[in-house]
């Protein structure tokens, strides 16, 4: 059964004044870009949403004692640890939030689940299918004990995406024919961007594929409500060696280059077509070398009865075309997804007062806490993360065979 404490005060937990729901301590491993984003989610969720359990930012963990203490102060964590095993062992930590590179996800997640903790793990779930399988098996065993494990595909929690899923599930698009998704960034255009962990297979598992492709595979499967069953893929590494970094840079910042160069062991870009279980066709493009594209995630779904289109750079908007309307007056119309009836919006600002990237992490924290409090299966679960991992593996296999169609499951 889940361990709950009620030792925190409402002020500590960020609950609205006068509200006292049980507190759950969060321990976060990693504090770079994703750690900062998750901290924002944990700090804000209880101030905006009426939560059945409220998060307390108990401790953050990183290897450098001085830097992790500074991160704790900056992001509002009560304590700092330098060994993730000590973080997991803390009595005031009931949720372990993993924001480290992929090479440590499996070890930390399995240990945390076995120690009786709930787990939130950044995407991609792991660096290999075998690791993702072990994590999913550990999550299933923990589920029987009342614990919850969720993978951080935060873009499901853009209100327009959650609403799009609702429209698809209601049949407003009818049978899907096409799913078209792209995720484009440009921080690797510069050939002198240093060789950080995201460019090393042993740390990141893959390149644009796991970093960005994982998001769009999850989004496509979530929005369509069905799995990818096979892929035909090409990947490319345009810049094959890069300067070694002088020091570990934070987030996507280039940081200073040191002496010497090292080999890039992951893809810069991945392109693939796919079949979904229903027979719908999909196309995916993930790259970190698309000059001028900063965080450009786009989705289009075409069905028998209509279409939906979305662009993350205009994330409060969803375009919808209802093909059952008379052709003379139909066409794509812009829905401003800021009404209180839209997902998550009941707790935010009045209509038209837009949300942004950071809010997806607030929604993620909210949904995890609801799953814990109500004992419901979390979404996306580790099993969802594993489904994505299998698609990534099939993409790599297909790319190695020169775009030969590769089934996701044998
Ligand atoms: C880097 O490409 C990155 O930080 C991804 O790792 C995140 O998952 C994405 O949300 C933003 O870009």
A few lines on this structure:
With 410 residues, the chain is of the alpha/beta class.
Task: Supply the key terms.
11 helices, oxidoreductase, Gfo/Idh/MocA-like_OxRdtase_N, alpha/beta, binds alpha-L-sorbopyranose, 410 residues
Radius of gyration: 21 Å
- Please tally the β strands and state the result: 17
- Helix proportion range: 25-40%
Average pLDDT? 94
Helix/strand-derived category reads alpha/beta
Q: Number of helix segments? A: 11
Overall geometry comes to globular
- Widest sheet: strand order? 16-15-14-13-7-12-11-8-17
Helix and strand run: HEHEHEHEHEHEHEHHEEEEEEEEEHHE
Percent strand equals: 15-25%
List cofactors, ions and other ligands: alpha-L-sorbopyranose
The stretches of 5 or more residues where confidence is low (pLDDT under 50) are: 1-18
Explained architecture:
49% of the residues are buried. Strand 13 (296-303) and strand 14 (306-311) form a beta hairpin. Residues 1-18 have low confidence and may be disordered. A nine-stranded mixed beta sheet has the order 16-15-14-13-7-12-11-8-17. Strands 3-2-1-4-5-6 form a six-stranded parallel beta sheet, sandwiched between helices. A two-stranded antiparallel ribbon has the order 9-10. The chain is α/β, with parallel strands linked by helices and 410 residues long. Helix 2 packs across helix 10, helix 7 crosses helix 9 and helix 9 (208-224) crosses helix 11. It has helices at residues 10-13, 33-48, 65-75, 84-89, 105-114, 129-143, 159-169, 201-204, 208-224, 359-374, 382-400; strands at residues 23-29, 54-61, 79-81, 95-98, 118-122, 149-152, 176-184, 228-236, 241-245, 257-263, 269-276, 281-287, 296-303, 306-311, 317-322, 333-336, 406-407. Helix content is 31%, strand content 25%. It has eleven helices and 17 strands. Alpha-L-sorbopyranose is lined by residues 33, 185, 211-212, 252, 295. Pfam families: GFO_IDH_MocA, GFO_IDH_MocA_C3.
